[in-house]
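Lab notebook: predicted structure, single chain.

Context: the supervisor wants predicted structures on file for every construct in the current expression panel, including those that have not yet been purified. This is the next one on the list. No modifications to the sequence; it matches the entry in the shared construct table.
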Amino acid sequence: MAVRTSARPTTPLPLGLLGLAALIALVSVLAVGLVVAGGAYEAPALGLPDPGPAVVWGSPILRLLTDVAALVTIGWLLSASVLDPAGKNGVVSPAGRRDLVRAGLAACAWAVLALVQMVFSLANVLGLTLIEALNPQVIATYANEVPATRALIAVAALALVVAVGCFLSSSTGAAMGWLVTSLLAAALPALGGHGAGLGDHAMALSSGVAHILGAYLWVGGLLALALHAVRRDMPIQRAVQKFSSIALIAFVLVAVSGMANAYTRLDTVNQLFSTGYGQVIVFKLFILVTLGVIALVMRERITNSLTTSRIAVFVRVAALELLTMGVAIALGVALSSSAPPRVETQFTSYGESLLGFAYPSSPTFDSVAFGFHLDPLFFVGSLVAAGLYIAGVARMRSRGHLWPWGRTISWMLGLVVVIWCTNAGISQYAQVSVGLHMLQHMTLTMLAPILLVLGAPATLALRALRPSHGHERGPREWLVWFLHSWITRILTNPFYVFVVYVLGLYGLYLTPAFGWLMGSHVGHIVMQLHFLFSGYLFYWVVIGVDPRPRPLSYWARLLLLLLALAVHGFFAVILMMSSTPLAYEWYGIVRPPWIPDLLQDSLNGGQVAWALSEIPTLIVMIVISIQWARSDDREAKRNDRQADRDGNTELNAYNDHLARLAERDQRQR
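Prediction complete. Output recorded below exactly as produced.
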């Protein structure tokens, strides 16, 4: 008689051991990628500085570990703020609170790894051994001077702030704030790079940042979901449904930005196959696209029916996605640590090498107004903003509700102005001429925001977006929270708006800050964003249709507008009366041959600032007058309707009160 033996159930490996095995596998992939792409250690020629194999190999390994800590932090914060079921009144659920603690622990590891990576990167840049780089004097002297190490110091500081905030926070709003801070910290290393010699450094930086943010949101969110599914400590089906939309957007962002970044690193398409660097790019793009297709098909089949048996299938699919995405991240680190095959562009002057493009020809109306120089951030961002607005209008009309055509036209014209300021010929001329820079600045900060504000995008979003069920915070709930939050109360405070919009001119142009910001592409982008958003805040307070916490009365709006005009005009007078060129430390270096006199160019900038401030102010005064008149008409109509309903009770009561006062005065006399 055969003895029947029962099969003993296999015990799954602990998550810690699985994570360690995955890290070892990723480090192995990174090593192979470095060898293929040409980033492996090679002994330098005799007499050249040699940091040693420990530094050369250790720098990319530490970068990989730092990236893993960053995406884990971002994943837990995404789970706590968006994916977990929220409690009442914006308080996180018990699962969300645990996710915040996990995010805080991951952020602590992120900060430590960023500091260790900073030491290795400093040794690699200076050509020092690790022992020499650990000298406190070397760190104190050079760590803040090298852009890459300076960025890592900032990353460590922000990660520590996020860690402390996560331990002390218990609301979804705070979790979202720490998520945004973490994404900013994750983008800093890419912003610290400089790719001017590789051609289009604007596309290189923009695509690099977009690639990192998309990958971190995708992988981090999926990791948090997979661990929740293993622990089964929260309803997973609704979380997977919400994450699917985020994952789709992140996948498109990663794929498009990856191809754009590859374009900036290669000279020809043949280098994709003829060089090791290109072969790694091809393999990385292949696994990303394949992974995206598989994930889309599988999640469509699993998401809508996540029963107990299906959760195990979801965990296996998620584990496959995570492993594949980990391989892609490791290959990305290998590419960033290797020299691209693209030949560095040689310019004829030092100024052109700083700009990243050849000097434009002498300005004409056609070259300034109709030239084109792509800025991916503002161009793509404006197209996305236009598409979302059109989608909102289409949803309104599908429900049978009308949306004023004037607002749609105003929004689209505002985006056209933004694209013109940042992508037309004016965008190149503004970097070499103060006068043309002022033309760009005045248009971007005074004309475009007026048109965008009159488009009322928040009002459209509130009407087009569907409310979420229960205590969940969907896009509409997050918008309502933002419009009524303390952040918006500060941003729309008239004193804050006045300081940022008007007095910020003095702090920018009359200090070395202007020349310093113009010296880097990142600084230039920050300055343009400041122009656009400070103008938007100002006109949101003055003429905005969208709701805000404390609307100003119409007379206060006119007073704020006139005060801003006066202070702005005084600024223009200062520029026109100046005896020294503006930002000579920048415009004196990048001066093209057709600018013989820098001082006259600065005076032209003052004249432009004086002249262009009048037209937008006149437009805004007309808009305020119309709004004020319509408000009085609406108030009069409301009073008439109230009088018809109650027989003019309020007016009769007021007349009776006056009669009693008159009778009392007569008796006293």
